[in-house]
TrEMBL record, chains A, B:
<keyword id="KW-0805">Transcription regulation</keyword>
<feature type="DNA-binding region" description="H-T-H motif">
    <location>
        <begin position="28"/>
        <end position="47"/>
    </location>
</feature>
<dbReference type="InterPro" id="IPR009057">
    <property type="entry name" value="Homeodomain-like_sf"/>
</dbReference>
<protein>
    <recommendedName>
        <fullName>HTH tetR-type domain-containing protein</fullName>
    </recommendedName>
</protein>
<feature type="domain" description="HTH tetR-type">
    <location>
        <begin position="5"/>
        <end position="65"/>
    </location>
</feature>
<dbReference type="Pfam" id="PF00440">
    <property type="entry name" value="TetR_N"/>
</dbReference>
<dbReference type="InterPro" id="IPR050109">
    <property type="entry name" value="HTH-type_TetR-like_transc_reg"/>
</dbReference>
<dbReference type="GO" id="GO:0000976">
    <property type="term" value="F:transcription cis-regulatory region binding"/>
</dbReference>
<keyword id="KW-0804">Transcription</keyword>
<dbReference type="InterPro" id="IPR001647">
    <property type="entry name" value="HTH_TetR"/>
</dbReference>
<dbReference type="InterPro" id="IPR036271">
    <property type="entry name" value="Tet_transcr_reg_TetR-rel_C_sf"/>
</dbReference>
<dbReference type="GO" id="GO:0003700">
    <property type="term" value="F:DNA-binding transcription factor activity"/>
</dbReference>
<keyword id="KW-0238">DNA-binding</keyword>
Length: 180, 180
C-alpha cells in the first residue's frame, strides 16, 4: 500500500541506476522487476521487452544532454565547450556510448542538441555542409574515445591528464575551416 | 593422411575467415575445431583458450597493417593517406575495430605501424607531444566511425559517399598545428 506505484519514471530511474552500477548487460526485465520489488507481469504493463527498456533509457539519457550556451566565448571555444560537456556527460554514464553506438533506436528528442551543436559549428564560419561533417566527425571522436579500452598510447606516452578530447575537438574545428 | 597438418598458420587463417564471415562472437574453439575438421584436443596442443585464439587473430591482423610510404605527397597528405589506408583495412575486417577497442591485448608488433604514423605526423611540423595527441585522436576517430552503427547524421543529411574519415583526418591534422 505504501509502496509507490509503478510508473515509467520509476522504471527508467531504476534502469539508469542499474546501468550506472553494473553496465548495460545488467539492464534486463528480470533485474528491473527484482529492483522494483514487482512481478514481471506488472512490468509488462509498461514495457514489452528489453528493447523497449533500452529505448526508454536512451530517451531519458538524451533528455539530459547538456546544452551549453555560447555566452561570451569565441565561436570556436563555444563549440568546443559544448562537445566537452557532451563528452563528460557520456563519461558519467559509461554505458551510454555503447547504447548510442548500437544504433538500435532513432529518437527525435535528440534533435534539440543536434541542432544546437550544428549551429555552434556554423557560428565558427563553417558552411552547413562542413558543419555537418564536423558534427558527425566529433561524434565519432567522442564515441571512439569512450568505447576504446585499448591504451592506444601504450607504445609511446600515456595521454595527458583528462585525455585528448578537448584538444582534438579544438583541432578538428580549427582545421575544418581550412581543408578542402 | 592427406589432410594438412594443424599449424598455427592454418588455425589463424581459419579464425580470420570465420570472423570475416560471421563476426568475432563466432570465433570459438568449438567452431575452429569444426572448420578444421579436428578434435578439440588437437587444437588445445596449439592454443590454451579463446583469449589465446583472439590474441593470435589480433597479431595476424596487426601484421597486415598498411605502411604507406610518404612518396612525393605533401607531409599532410602523406599522413592522411596512411590513416585512410588503415581505415580501409579496418573496414575490410569489421570485427577488428571491436577487437582493438576491447583492449584485451598488448602487442609489440604494432610498434612498426605506430612509429610510422607518429613519424608522418611529426613530418607535418607537429612537435612530438602534438604528434602523439594527434595519433591517439586519429585512432579514436577511426574506431568511433568503425564502431558507430548509429546514423549520427540521420537528423540532418546522410554522410557523403565514402564517409567523412579522410576529410576529418585532414582537418584534425591541419588544426593540430595551430591550436594551443
Amino acid at each position: 500500500m505504501a509502496r509507490p506505484g509503478l510508473t515509467a519514471r520509476r522504471i527508467v530511474d531504476t534502469a539508469r541506476t542499474v546501468a550506472d552500477e553494473d553496465g548495460l548487460e545488467a539492464v534486463t526485465l528480470r533485474r528491473l522487476a527484482d529492483e522494483l520489488g514487482t512481478g514481471a507481469a506488472s512490468l509488462y504493463r509498461h514495457i514489452d521487452n528489453r528493447a523497449d527498456l533500452l529505448t526508454l533509457l536512451a530517451a531519458d539519457f538524451i533528455e539530459g544532454y547538456p546544452l551549453v550556451p555560447a555566452g561570451r566565448r569565441s565561436p570556436q571555444e563555444a563549440a568546443v565547450r559544448q562537445w566537452v560537456a557532451m563528452r563528460r556527460y557520456v563519461a558519467e554514464h559509461p554505458w551510454s556510448a555503447t547504447l548510442i553506438a548500437s544504433g538500435g533506436f532513432h529518437l527525435e528528442d535528440a534533435r534539440a542538441v543536434a541542432d544546437h551543436c550544428v549551429e555552434l559549428l556554423e557560428a565558427t564560419g563553417l558552411s552547413r555542409t562542413r558543419a555537418l561533417r564536423c558534427y558527425r566527425s566529433l561524434w565519432h571522436l567522442l564515441l571512439g574515445e569512450a568505447l576504446n579500452a585499448h591504451a592506444v598510447g601504450h607504445l609511446h606516452d600515456a595521454p595527458p591528464e583528462g585525455g585528448d578530447f578537448a584538444w582534438a575537438a579544438r583541432a578538428l574545428i580549427a582545421g575544418a575551416a581550412s581543408v578542402r
